[in-house]
Amino acid sequence: MSTTSSLRWRIPLLLAGVLILAGPQHPRGSTMLQMLGHADWLPSHVLMTASIIAFGVGLALLRRGQPQPERTARWLRYAIIATAMQTVEAVVHTAAVVDHANLAAGRATPVLTTHLAMAVAVYPLFGAAVVGLIVAAARERVLGSWWIAWIGIIGASAHGAAAPLRILTGYEPFSILFAGIVVLALWMALAGVWPLRAAAPARRGAPVPAVARN
Fold first, then answer.
1. Are 59 and 16 in contact (CB under 8 A)?
2. Number of neighbours of residue 129 by Cβ within 10 angstroms
3. Contact 136, 75 (CB under 8 A)
4. Does residue 88 contact residue 82 with C-beta atoms inside 8 Å?
5. DSSP state, 38?
6. Distance, CA of 76 to CA of 71 (rounded, Å)
7. pTM of the full predicted structure?
8. Which element (helix H / strand E) includes 68?
9. How many other CB atoms are found less than 10 A from the CB of residue 199?
């Protein structure tokens, strides 16, 4: 892979991690009303949305850069689709702040309700797709490595489980799982700069592994 082609996907991937790691974190609170009313709600979610968009751009550029091994190509497609879904959810998630007054007054909260319903469905899909990509890409030496894969797996798994567990059960301690996005962001940043070990050349006469076409 050429240096220019590599930089095209590395820069947005690194940016995706930095936007979350360097920005304000999700506001804490025991109730949704407290969190929506917190000053950090809007900036933290704007940065999270920007991070997810950058992550999707990085994955798309990685896919376009050159043909990938079959397993990685498959999970890369899944991850790109799931990231697009997560981006839409993140936009609605951020916009839920407009329902703060409605929630306080006991009125209908259409944006907040839409966000909660979407989160229950989208978070697990995104988490599963990203875990699959991390494992496949580390195994086939396309993105990151086994040295950092465990960080991404923990982060994506926690993020994927956070919304359904917290929203469907109402159990407040499950809120800690939302910190998984920060752990995943660490993997994004590391994967953006992690050197890739060149695959060993195939032996003469050995079968050539299938690669997916762009």
1. no
2. 24
3. yes
4. no
5. S
6. 9
7. 0.87
8. strand 68-69
9. 11
- What are the tokens at 181? 């996005």
Under DSSP, is residue 173 helix (H, G, I), strand (E, B) or coil?
helix
Task: Decide: helix, strand or coil at residue 159.
Answer: helix
Contact (CB, 8 A) for 154 and 135: no
User: Can you read off the two tokens belonging to residue 171?
Assistant: 């159990």
Query: Looking at this protein, which amino acid is placed at residue 134?
Result: I
What spatial distance separates the first Cα and last Cα of the chain, rounded to whole Å? 15
Which 3 state secondary structure label does DSSP give 211? Answer: strand
- Quick one: which of 134, 139, 184 has its CA closest to 158? 184
Residue burial 43-80, b: 16+ Cβ < 10 Å; e: rest: ebbbbbbbbbbbbbbbbbbbbebeebbebbbebbbbbb
The pLDDT tens digits of the residues spanning 19-40 come to: 999 888 877 777 889 899 888 8
- The Cα angle at residue 169 between residues 163 and 171, in degrees rounded to 5: 90
Higher pLDDT, 211 or 189: 189
